[in-house]
Design goal:
With about 675 residues, this protein is α/β, with parallel strands linked by helices. The chain is built from 22 helices and 30 strands. The strands form 8 sheets. It has an 8-stranded mixed beta sheet with strand order 12-11-8-6-7-14-15-23, with helices on both faces. A 7-stranded mixed beta sheet has the order 5-4-17-16-18-19-20, with helices on both faces. Strand 4 and strand 5 form a beta hairpin. The radius of gyration is 25 Å and the shape is globular. Bound molecules: 5'-O-[(S)-ethoxy(hydroxy)phosphoryl]adenosine. Its EC number is 6.2.1.1. This is Acetyl-coenzyme A synthetase. Its cofactor is Mg(2+). It holds the Pfam family AMP-binding.
Length: about 675
């Protein structure tokens, strides 16, 4: 049987903070008095949704050329927001704060894993991005080009993104934990001309190299990549690095030659800002495309109102890596558009000790913390003594994102980390660009475990499979019923897949097409929304999206493997965990019978896709449960993986298969 991780110690919660039915928390009078958001926002958005977004956009952003049209939805599902306006995204995140007299305000407090600290003001960040923009231009990059960014969490990652945005080009950030193969397929799909990387970064007390993966990715078949810019982060100057003359350039050498003057040109509101690859239900990741004016409006508005940002006094910390959408929207674009001061940390939470995050909060007086339930659950497991030995009194608001947060974790987070601060549980996706469902602090009475209400200007519904609204107390599929400014504009190079994946399920319903999110949801008796997890073959492991099909194709690419089926099994800490069932080719049965064979297959997945995709378990089985039409019945495999009695097997082509799998696993136990 699969080993399950121990339950969080129930004693971790005090008697008052155990979940109870109908439990709610009202905002304190003090919080309400100085809150950024107010209930008026809902009324304004309800009165005129488009005018509401137009107002937000005008008040939060600087438009070089003001827009006259808010939304063009004449060719659904292809939306255009603020289409006749022009702006520069980087100017909005940088220059205008300096021009407004806030150049000395700290934009980034960066701490490396070894403890090195850099404090970078808005004026300094602006100057650095200007130099980098000049560098990109000198390398022949301009509007219409794609730049791949494969960097650790260092300030240069943000500088690189903003420099690409400043010259109207498009970035594609690839998480540093992805393998060379994953990197190559993303570079190819986007036809990137330039890669920006580093020698390596610090993780878990060691240098984790990055440049070798870029070298491996670019070896072999010719690519569209002309140059590779390399930031020196990890090794000292005299460290030898594999170097391809004529292609590879040191970032610091090149930047030093550049002028810190650069005039930000304006670009169309719909100019592509970035492509970010995410897992779907097929083996091929989708390049989610976001554009400029609508995206920046949505991220700036939500960052300010959901996180109650007071830029002159708050220190905000979102723990996401820039390789994910949360890092794009709530480390880079939302916070910088709002002139926030934020902490950025390079390393892992447990290096060099389990209290590292709390130490950072204490040291830098963080007031707003935004993180994922997985992290909270793993801190719960290590016990409240660790956070309690630090001074966390600077915290005044906590956020959660990436997966459903169980009420126990929500309550522990509030009590042990926040000392009673409000929590916002924010539901959204790579595709939505920004937060869609969340409480507003100071306004909403919160319920542990529920994301609750769409933010002002956003319309969602919970629908039956046929597109009818479910009643109170019922579950169904989550849909977004009106276009929104931060919405994805397409899948890079694949408009048909865009229409098919998101807009075909509810195409024929009233006022359709509606956006199908791929998540299940329940409406409670008050009409509040509870998220129930994915309804498709996408898994959510530690808040990272992984596709079953992608891992299956990595497994069958291994010479031993004839067939593979992957399921996401419930996991106490990571939400879901990857569990694979594999049939070995008969000619390799001897090799696969050796001890450690399953581990070899786990490592194979990690090196093909990246360590985040490494299965928790690989079971070697002789058959897989299939229907008469040959479809794998994952539901039954999930039962096995979660250690439950196997459910209804009547539609199996061969009813003895599950017995055989059970016997095989029992042998191993
Ligand atoms: C899940 C991350 C429950 C959901 C921003 C969604 C959540 C997927 C929540 C998107 C939440 C995200 N409660 N589930 N607060 N936030 N999800 O694209 O299944 O990496 O579809 O974007 O994460 O993951 P993605």
């Amino acid at each position: 049987m699969p080993e399950t991780s121990p339950l969080p110690d129930d004693a971790a919660l005090t008697a008052e903070s155990r979940p109870r039915d109908g439990q709610r928390f009202s905002p304190s009078a003090e919080f309400r008095a100085s809150a950024v958001a107010s209930a008026d926002l809902y009324a304004e958005a309800a009165a005129d949704r488009l005018e509401f977004w137009a107002d937000q956009s005008r008040s939060l952003l600087h438009w070089h050329r003001p827009f006259t049209e808010v939304l063009d939805w004449s060719k659904p599902p292809f939306a255009r927001w603020f289409a006749d306006g022009e702006l520069n995204v980087a100017y909005n995140c940088l220059d205008r704060h300096v021009l407004a007299g806030n150049g000395d305000r700290i934009a980034l407090i960066w701490e490396g894993e070894p403890g090195d600290v850099r404090r970078i003001s808005y004026a300094e960040l602006t100057a650095e991005v200007k130099r980098a923009a000049n560098l990109l231009t000198s390398l022949g990059i301009g509007q219409g080009d794609r730049v791949a960014i494969y960097l650790p969490m260092i300030p240069e990652a943000i500088v690189a993104m903003l420099a690409v945005a400043r010259i109207g080009a498009t970035h594609s950030v690839i998480f540093g934990g992805f393998s060379a193969e994953s990197l190559r397929s993303r570079i190819d799909d986007a036809a990137a001309k330039l890669v920006i990387t580093a020698d390596g970064g610090w993780r878990k007390g060691r240098i984790s190299p990055l440049k070798p993966a870029v070298d491996a990715a670019l070896a072999g078949e010719p690519t569209t990549v002309e140059k590779v810019l390399v930031v020196r982060r990890a090794w000292p100057d005299d460290q030898e690095l594999e170097w391809t003359a004529g292609r590879d350039l040191w970032w610091h050498d090149e930047i030093a030659l550049m002028d810190a003057d650069h005039v930000a040109k304006s670009f169309d509101a719909e100019n592509p800002l970035f492509i970010l690859y995410t897992s779907g239900t097929t083996g091929k990741p989708k390049g989610i495309l976001h554009t400029s004016g609508g995206y920046l409006t949505h991220t700036a508005f939500t960052h300010r109102s959901v996180f109650d940002l007071h830029p002159e006094s708050d220190v905000y910390w979102c723990t996401a890596d820039i390789g994910w959408i949360t890092g794009h929207s709530y480390v880079v674009y939302g916070p910088l558009a709002n002139g926030a001061t934020q902490l950025i940390y390079e390393g892992t939470p447990d290096t060099p000790h389990g209290g590292r995050w709390w130490e950072l909060i204490q040291k830098h007086a963080v007031s707003i913390l935004y993180t994922a339930p997985t992290a909270i659950r793993s801190f719960m497991k290590s016990g409240r003594e660790i956070p309690q030995s630090f001074d966390l009194s600077s915290l005044r608001l906590l956020g959660s994102v990436g997966e459903p947060i169980n009420p126990e974790a929500w309550l522990w987070y509030r009590e042990v980390i926040g000392g009673g601060t409000p929590i916002v549980d924010t539901w959204w996706q790579t595709e939505t660009g920004g937060i869609m469902i969340s409480a507003l602090p100071g306004v909403t009475e919160t319920k542990p475990g529920a994301a609750q209400v769409p933010i002002p200007g956003i319309s969602v519904a919970v629908l039956t499979d046929k597109g009818k609204k479910v009643g109170k107390g019922e579950s169904g599929l989550l849909a977004v019923t009106q276009p929104w400014p931060g919405m994805l504009r397409g899948i890079w190079g694949d408009p048909d897949r865009f229409v098919e994946t998101y807009w075909s399920k509810f195409a024929k319903v009233e006022n359709g097409p509606l956006y199908f999110a791929g998540d299940g949801a329940r409406r409670d008796e008050d009409g509040d929304i509870w998220l129930l997890g994915r309804v498709d073959d996408v898994m959510n492991v530690s808040g990272h999206r992984l596709s079953t099909a992608e891992i299956e194709s990595a497994l069958v690419a291994h010479p031993w493997v004839a067939e593979a089926a992957v399921v996401g099994a419930n996991d106490e800490t990571t939400g879901q965990a990857v569990v694979a069932f594999v049939i070995i080719r008969s000619r390799h049965s001897d090799a696969a019978a050796e001890p450690g064979a399953a581990d070899q297959l786990r490592s194979h997945v990690a090196s093909t896709i990246g360590p985040i995709a490494r299965p928790r378990q690989v079971f070697l089985v002789s058959e897989l449960p299939k229907t008469r039409s040959g479809k794998i019945m994952r539901r039954l495999l999930r039962d096995v993986a979660e250690g439950r009695a196997v459910g209804d097997t009547t539609t199996l082509a061969d009813a003895t298969v599950m017995q055989a799998i059970g016997d095989k696993l029992a042998d191993k136990a």
